[in-house]
Amino acid sequence: MTAHAHPRWQRTQRTTLVESEWIKHHLDTITLPSGKSIDFHAIEFPMLVAGVIPVGVDGRILLTMQYRYMVDAFGWEIPAGNIPPGEDLAEGARRELIEETGHDAPILEPLYNFHPQIGRSNHHFHLFVARDAHKISDTIDNDEVAAVRWFALDELEQMLRTNELRDGFTALAVLLYRFLRPSPSAVAPRVRCTTARSEGNADPQIG
Q1: What is the reported pTM?
Q2: Cα–Cα distances in Å, from 3 out to 10, 186, 204?
């Protein structure tokens, strides 16, 4: 029997416990292929998530220092955020880049997409590479971001070895960029941001 021919789980009842624009928490009654019935807590996220790997002209990567309430800790992360329904995914990724770092980029390259909690939720993450990221503003979202800093790729790889990158999206982003980034001669889908903003002559390598 192939995977596609295997019987799917069947939902026979759903009770919605929590519902907001951010998240829906359902208690589902599921019938398994064996006929067994179980209760299943299903988490539904109405919005996609986009993350950005901002790469400067010298190849360094820009990360944000963010406080995470649920673990009461600060850590270095890629810029990322929710994309509301109706917003273009790439433009939403670019918006997050600008809001969290004060940087913009003329080109966004889709790199990967995945489900981070596939056993429990439909959360769907999309990862982009922002080429030639450069500073356009000193304004960042201070409610979320404590600092921004450029890192060499080998420095980030060392931080992975020492377990310093604790955010899963960021850790995976660094690994994916390390192994999947296209060579200069490769043909890759690109989204050119023709309305890229510019404010002054800020050094592209100063965070």
Answers
A1: 0.85
A2: 16, 34, 49
Strands 10-19 and 48-54: unpaired
Alpha helix stretches (DSSP H) within the chain: 89-101, 153-161, 168-180
Is residue 33 within 8 Å of residue 43, measured between CB atoms? Answer: no
Collapsed DSSP state (helix, strand, coil) of residue 2: coil
Residue matched to tokens 């592209």: 204
- Using DSSP's 3-state secondary structure scheme, residue 59 falls into coil
When pLDDT is averaged across residues 141-164 and rounded to a whole number, the result is 96
Same domain, 57 and 151: yes
Confidence of residue 196 (pLDDT cuts 50, 70, 90): very low
Structural domains of the chain, count: 2
Longest dimension (CA), the chain: 66
Distances (CA, A) of 21 to 25, 123, 139, 195: 12, 14, 27, 29
Question: Is residue 24 located within the same domain as residue 57?
Answer: no
Q: Provide the pLDDT for residue 207.
A: 36
